[in-house]
Design a protein that fits this description.
The protein is α+β, with helices and mostly antiparallel strands. It contains two helices and 17 strands. Helix content is 22%, strand content 39%. The chain binds 2-acetamido-2-deoxy-beta-D-glucopyranose (6 copies). It comes from Microcaecilia unicolor.
């Protein structure tokens, strides 16, 4: 066994291993787990098995059915192989886990074969945030022009945005959207969807709510409410002050 092991290592040293095709792209989600699938034909005897990261470092190995031995501290406690095959499961994915992985395996039918993987780590996207970043009053008071900005917090790389509208035919790519609305369209809602290779999430907005007209009506209501609140507070205060003076007066009378 030991001699075979040494033989194996020397074969790799001379680069005599057999590569099996292009790297497989595997997509993983940050903080979750991912499996690099590997199947070995039934009945084949596996002599040794190595998982390498970035083609240089051996991170884990199996020797003659002795279970997985994780040798790289970065992966300690985060690697496992399911029963029955040699797929590698990586748990609690980190951003720095992204990169190329190689499974190197020696069976009684092939000296050494390599299977390469390219792991891409992405975060699960949160709900995008829509911001109106420019509001201009269009032609007179009739149209309302709004520029909308859609972004995802901590989205990382590879996030793509699309805009769609419910009552209007629209499909636009990119995080910005310019809309021009007339009061008839006050109920039109727009949806911004953010996507990456592992997830998608979306947020709806009714742009009219950012338009002058509605804010103006809103502020009138606000004013009424404020006046009412003011009057109410004054009355309460007056009652309180009267009560305090009465009590104070009576106490002083008693003391005298
Ligand atoms: C490996 O085994 C696991 C669990 O038994 C299974 O979910 C997975 O599909 C298998 N993978 C392959 C490539 O056979
Ligand atoms: C590999 O070993 C298994 C049993 O361990 C045997 O059934 C199979 O025929 C062998 N394959 C080759 C190519 O020698
Ligand atoms: C969208 O993001 C929210 C948090 O912002 C999350 O609770 C929800 O599960 C996400 N939806 C999807 C489909 O990932
Ligand atoms: C869009 O929103 C992002 C995140 O809030 C911000 O950093 C960026 O400056 C905004 N873009 C514009 C043009 O306002
Ligand atoms: C939105 O309008 C601004 C000017 O108001 C313009 O600079 C920008 O290119 C427009 N964006 C899109 C996506 O049409
Ligand atoms: C907007 O919706 C409300 C209730 O859903 C409805 O009463 C109103 O007429 C609608 N306005 C327009 C302009 O369609």
């Amino acid at each position: 066994m030991i001699s075979r092991f040494i033989l194996l290592i020397s074969i790799w040293g001379t680069g005599c291993s057999q590569d099996t095709g292009d790297p497989w792209d595997v997509f993983g989600i940050l903080g979750e787990s991912v499996t690099l699938p590997l199947k070995i034909p039934q009945g084949e005897k596996v002599y040794a098995f190595f998982w390498r990261f970035e083609t240089e470092v051996t991170i884990a190995l199996i020797k003659e059915g002795n279970g997985l031995d994780v040798v790289d501290s970065r992966f300690k406690g985060r690697l496992s192989i399911p029963d029955g095959n040699f797929s590698l499961q990586i748990q609690s994915l980190r951003e720095e886990d992204g990169g190329s992985y190689t499974a190197q395996i020696a069976t009684n039918s092939t000296a050494v074969s390599n299977r390469e993987y390219k792991l891409h780590v992405f975060s699960r996207l949160q709900k995008p945030i829509i911001e109106p970043y420019k509001v201009t009053d269009g032609s007179g008071n009739i149209a309302c022009n709004i520029a909308l900005n859609c972004t995802v917090k901590n989205g990382g790389e590879g996030v793509k945005y699309t805009w769609t509208a419910e009552n209007k035919r629209l499909f636009q790519e990119g995080s910005f959207l310019n809309v021009s609305l007339v009061p008839m369209e006050s109920n039109v809602t727009y949806t911004c969807t953010a996507r990456n290779p592992v997830s998608e999430n979306s947020t709806q907005v009714r742009p009219w709510s950012f338009c002058m007209g509605e804010n103006f009506r809103g502020s009138t209501r606000q004013t009424h409410y404020c006046i009412m609140k003011g009057i109410f507070t004054t009355i309460i205060l007056a009652i309180l002050l009267t009560a305090i003076s009465v009590v104070h007066f009576k106490t002083r009378q008693r003391n005298v």
